[in-house]
Amino acid sequence: MNAQATDAHHDSDHDHHGPAPGLMRWVTTTNHKDIGTLYLWFSLIMFFIGGLMALVIRSELFQPGLQLVDPHFFNQMTTMHALVMIFGVVMPAFVGLANWMLPMMIGAPDMALPRMNNWSFWILPFGFAMMLSTLLMEGGGPAAGWTLYPPLSLQTGDAFPFLIFSIHLLGVSSIMGAINIVATIMNLRAPGMTFMKMPLFVWTWFITAYLLIAVMPVLAGAVTMLLTDKFFGTSFFDAAGGGDPVMFQHIFWFFGHPEVYILILPSFGLVSEIIPTFSRKRLFGYSSMVYATASIAFLSFIVWAHHMFTVGMPLAGEIFFMFTTMLIAVPTGVKVFNWVSTMWRGAMTFETPMLFALGFVVMFTIGGFSGLMLAMTPIDFQYHDTYFVVAHFHYVLVPGAIYGIIGGVYYWLPKWTGNMYSESLGKMHFWLSTIFVNVLFFPMHFVGLAGMPRRIPDYSVQFADFNQIATIGAFGFGFSQILLLVLVVKCIRGGEKATDQVWEGAEGLEWTVSSPAPYHTFSPQPVIK
Amino acid sequence: MNKIQRVMGILFGGALWTATGPAWAEWELNLTEGVTEISREVFDMHMTVMWICFWIGVIVFGAMAISIVKHRKSKGVTPATFHESTFAEILWTIIPFVILISMAFPAAKMLIKMEDTSDAEITIKVTGHQWKWEYEYLDSGVKFISSLHADSREAATPGSGIDPTTVDNYLLEVDNPVVLPTGKKVRFLLTSSDVIHAWWIPAFAIKKDAIPGFINEMWTVVDEEGTYRGQCAELCGRQHGFMPIVVEARSEAEYDEWVTAQLAAAEVAASSADREWAMDELMERGEKVYGTYCAACHQANGNGIAGVFPALNGSPMVLEDIEGHINIILNGKPGTAMQAFAAQLNDADIAAVVTYERNAWENETGEIIQPATVKSMRIQ
User: Fold this and answer.
1) From the CA of A454, how many Å to the nearest CA of chain B?
2) pLDDT in tens, A1-46
3) Residue B107 and residue A318: Cβ atoms within 8 Å?
4) In angstroms, rounded to a whole number, what is the distance separating the alpha carbons of residues A396 and B55?
5) What's the complex ipTM?
């Protein structure tokens, strides 16, 4: 308490200061808005890097036969595409949005741990520089898939220790980010901002932060065991030495499944902010939304082995994990029904953030349906490790998680820059993305069901047609994202001035400060009635 | 089904495809019904769940569509103020729960049936290797290795310039298919010698991982004679996409004939190790063995891949150390992708491939290695 009081005093001394001039502003900043901006730019750059890798993959898969890349390089691309998109795009984008918005949504002057905040961002560029540099090393980058299953991952060349160390770095960064968010929400809420008054984006991030703190150390443990297996003679995962390669999968997915929800829960929160605003109606079932999020988070710890139904688990294990996995459909269904009920009898308008939120609800639900099918063990044997799975998780991650993020960016961009973005460009971005994302991912359901395994650089000719369509969709979707970059840059440079409330139906503390939001907000803190 | 396929084909491809020439194949959209009792049950459950999802989708997206059309500000509506209803929320917690229960019980029942490997009449041990399958019929002693067919392998070499559409069953053809009798319960024991692979035949609806140090079980009874194709379904390295599985289901009489022929051929191969071989003979056989077992890593030109797979062309071991050379092929090199081939290759094969490697490319040692030399090293 003492420390906090001193901090508050210290901050008020600097109230009239703007940011430090020059580039050093970004290196030394402890301001939550600056750090949020850094995270978001970083995420956007990585989005294009990861996207280029996806285009390499889709180009090779345009026709049967090997035309462009060696299969080993193809495997490096699938591995790196996943690592970049998960750890370099979705997670940093969420942390960026949290940095910018959480303090403003709960009436806090800044994040609780500003110096750690700076550090947790600045680890990222170094971690990724190291990870990406492995592509240039002897033997190439990691090529065993982002899941790093041994013994295959132990065949990685010189890249291996660098890969492990970069995963450690990303984990450290995520854990610090999560601790910061928990500390901020616990300690810095404005007077009267009780837990059950917090906006849903704050709630979903609060729960996500706990998931991160719980599982990132598990990943760190798993990859460290890989490292000692490779270099220090242990045999955690080597059956010849008394170890168990399946144990790695259990440990990995004990991290990996909560990780899946880490990648989606904040987007649930974003959509829960956007839909009420543009429906001009309060969020339906606020408390059940909170409880549903918490239930999903709890269930995420007891469903991990549904990623490994074919490893030869005991029958009882298969049945247990099938039942728990199917159960997740209940709270997830509640959320979807609540979003639809929020729209019901509202007065809707369709600005770009709302379009992305609506796209999210529809396409995330499609991904949810295929998820339900995958949950059922006896039929999962047919889907497992095919393109049906690829279609499933891309539906929940691209028009799911990423649409949530893009919607959130459009929603708050006027608050960040003080200018309205170009609505016509935004709408074009939405429609092009939505058409192409379906051209890209929907045919993958078909080739998967028809029997095409995932992670193959070349395929039998009967899969050719749908693969060509998917590749066309991939290029269309990829190039459509350039619009986002153009739009953001234009919006920063100028445009119609935004009002403080920005959106007619917007409610919440972040809309009470001026647009653009001043460098320091909410000192002293507001009081919530 | 055909009608749906045609409609989808037109929807997705029609316009785009007239420009790019003839479509390659049928527009396969759905799971195969397969040729076993289990695969048909799996197909039915798949369709049931898909239709349940479809109708839930119709309701949810329908409600959304109505809101989007009717409850929009441009129609001058005033937003309602309701924001909770305990009744509605309990309802849409309980209804999905009941639907799920009704799906979960038949699924559990089916799973119990699928995992029951008892009373099998034939047992086949399947061992995954990077990147081929080894089959051992435990009852009759038939044993062979099955790898990608040479035509596919040639076409799939980067820069081969061969059009895959001209290759029969491109990437889905092997040199030695698995042969099964119809109507008998066959049990598969799955394991691996290196990394994790997965054995999958869509028409049987069975898929399981082959894991080093573990033995997994699964079973099937094939109803119809025919050739069924599948692929490795777990990422297993560079050639993961190039280790197909082909199963031929034959009548029992034909199956018995096949077993007899296989056993006879194995005997001939074993005796060939005892005689002297000529250089030409060894080189010819060695090139074949090299193509099937070694080229995937060490490459057809013997140059390997820098940093991953060492070159044999100009390698000191190949040029000088005969004993080391034979030994590494027999016993592998722990901790690397170089596996032990002692169990997979006979003495003549190993002698041939060693001779080939020492005389191919720029390696011109002129040395001939006889099967007897390999045999003597095996005993130690």
Assistant:
1) 7
2) 344 444 444 444 444 567 878 888 999 999 999 999 999 999 999 9
3) no
4) 20
5) 0.90
